[in-house]
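User: Predict the complex.
Assistant: Input components as received:
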Amino acid sequence: MLGLFKALGTTLSVIVRKPVTLQYPAVHKELPHRTRGFPVLLWNFEVVEPFCTGCRVCARYCPSECISVTMKDNPLYAEGKSKRRKIVDRFYLDYGRCMRCNICVEVCNFDAIVLNNSWSGHEVSRYDRRDLVNDLDDLLAESKGGGLTNPFREPLGMAHSGWSPKPRGEKAEAE
Amino acid sequence: MIADNPWIDATVRTLLVVLLVILVVLILIWLERKVAGRIQMRLGPMVTGPYGIIQSAADAIKLLTKEDLRPATADRWVFELAPFVAFVPSLLALIALPFTAHLFVRNLELGLFYIVAVSGLSTVGLLMAGWGSANKYALLGAVRGAAQLISYEIPLVLAILAVAMVSGSLNLVEIVNEQGRVPYIVWQPLGFAIFIIATLAELRRNPFDIPAAESEIIGGPFIEYSGIRWSMFFFAEYINVFVLSVLGSLVFLGGWNWPLGNEVGWPLQVVLILLKTSAMLLLFMWLRSTLPRLRIDQLMSFCWQVLLPFAFVAIIVNGLVLVYEWPDVVLGLLSGVAALVAGALVYHSSHRTVPSQPWSLVPAKGID
Amino acid sequence: MAIEERELETIDINVNVGPQHPATHGVFRMILRVDGELVVDLEPVIGYLHRGAEKLSENCDYRQAIAFQDRTEYLAQFNAELCYVIAVEKLMGLEVPERAEYIRVILTELNRIASHLMFMGAFSADLGVFGTLFMYAFRERERMLDLFEEISGDRMMYSYFRVGGLAWDVPEDFVERTRWMVKEARKGIADIDGLLTENEVFLARTRGIGIMTAEQAIDWGFSGPMLRASGVRHDLRRAEPYSIYDRLEFDIPIGHRGDVYDRYMVRLEEMRQSARIVEQCLDQMPKDGPIVAPDLKRVLRPPAGEVYMRAENPRGEYGIYLVSKGADKPYRLKIRSPSFCHLAALRDMTIGHYLADAVLILGSVDIVLCEVDR
């Protein structure tokens, strides 16, 4: 009998605790800084173009093979406004296949892709699976619109060589 | 007597009681979900209406609009009549249930006996559902359910009979009137304990819900029912919960009589009896969310080897006290002692197989 | 008048506890033959979740294959990742820096607690506790998943360990957060203990069910908590210490009878011991330092060879057999999953018990379908 009363006592002591429910979608929990949403491309605001040059490293290393990229000659380079000779022409990323493993972010040579750590990176629901394939404009929309306030860009790529991406702007000026 | 005509009087009162009880059942379903939620550290329904009070109505509407399925190999008439056979006896029990000294449909001289007898009819509905579903899970569930319900009727009836012996009548209004000074729970703790356990088994609630064990035979006899038919079983279960809770508060907790007496007006008496019924309901919900379920053979051996002998003990004790006209205190003491003995028996039989330390630790610095 | 006595003829019925069932912990099928309520025969059917993870790993290089390990053992992901990563490091002869080792072990043990909490929840749901214990266990587990999200970015599929160390360093408040987490986990374990351990109904349901003696357990190839509940003193963290387990002090709970109750108690106590390990690691961990082995190439090409690495997962002995031919992708990656070996013994454990016990015994084996089927 005593065990039963102990169990009942445990249950009774729980009733007075505050429930742990968060009523989504009225209330959103605070996402940690490193949370991995779906990938988005970054927009370079100084030179008005994406960082991505279409080098296809991310497509080669993606385990799910969800990225396809093509590159073209950069018209802004011909005009002298940008240092990138080539720029991305088309970029398709299938959110339905992506498993958010972060490998594309680690291998990117130009810090052009990042995982969206805001709620818009998590609330990606569509009625049709084909609508999950995002093209270049969809992927740039988040960064252009200013939604990516604090992407997670801690030392990446360290895991493979101690190599780290060139700090943007500083090294270029030092050279 | 409404309109001085017994037929109109009976019809109006019955309709009123049935409608009120259906409303109560909707509230009960909501309450169960909220209480279970709080015990589980969560909120329960919150979205439909403020604090989710319209949730039961929303569920009822959803169930009513569902397609009425019937398996092709099912025995048609048995399958389709089973919900009615389970549902109607619960409503029949409401006819003899008094809420105050004057608020009832009919106050039968054999009221107590009638309620228990009629509640037993729903077992047939369960068996019909299990057989008619042409499904092995349903059959297993129905057979388990039949064994459980029939077995636990006996201690339930004996516990209630013990109380009837003390009060000297089977008329529910008289039983409540006899409890003016002290409710029967004080004189009959053993009877109350047996009543609670047997009620849980009759209602097929945890820890006795093996006929409809969710995690093994997923729904038991009700597995093939959907829509209105399933909701009839569900309603029948909750009406039974309500009826037996009211019965418990009438017979053991003093009904509308204790502690305020018979002279206060009927609104206060109704409030009192609803409070006591709510206490029993909350007890049942608390037990449901806490205890694991018993296996069918453990359930049966508990009934026949523990509950039944102690129910007989209760009757014998009552008989001795009444025949030799010992004071009531003796009755309470003997009954209490018997309840403690029953508890100790259960404790020892289940802890007998547990060694003092069920596991041993290989210490951190030991060899391996 | 003579009354003829005749034996009542009964038929055994085949009950299909099918792939879609609330109690089978995944898409697992048991075909039971029951005589009334007594189980006479049991046939487990697996393969509903086979996705070819081992073959897919052959097309991935060593960093991409870490994600597959997560998805194979989806309740103890850090344990599986650790086993795989140490296997590749053995093949390459890498030395992992201390700080990375400590963080790995901390996360692995926290994941062990989380996995055992999931066991408590699912097991109590099988028992029939309406959902109460499930919610208590999951409240603690949710806290842990939030901590893991703060560190690695994802709640369940971490891909955080890398060959040679970690992907990136832990956040600054890691030590305080983890200490708080361990305290909360202890409270949660006390809740579960209070609700179940001395509960008479629980004792009646689980004592003497599904007994496996020590000899039988060794014969069937049990490992992990199943083996220890049967009384065999074997824990891979002690027998073949990997990573930094030889510097840590922890006890190993051993059961006496090998029934369902002992398995539950062994797992409950293991949670407490894991909490102890985490606290020791937090005290011993170097405050800063590199988190990845130095001089790693960008593309890993282990020398040709083979290695078998086994780790103590919450379910048992998780093994990775890796064959490399010098390329950047493994030639053969075989996963030895503990649940697969335990399921082979399910028939012997269940015959002679009741139908209600069959579900409990399956729950006590604590299977993860993804590693059974890979």
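The first strand of chain B starts at residue 359 and ends at 362.
Let me know if you want any component modeled separately.
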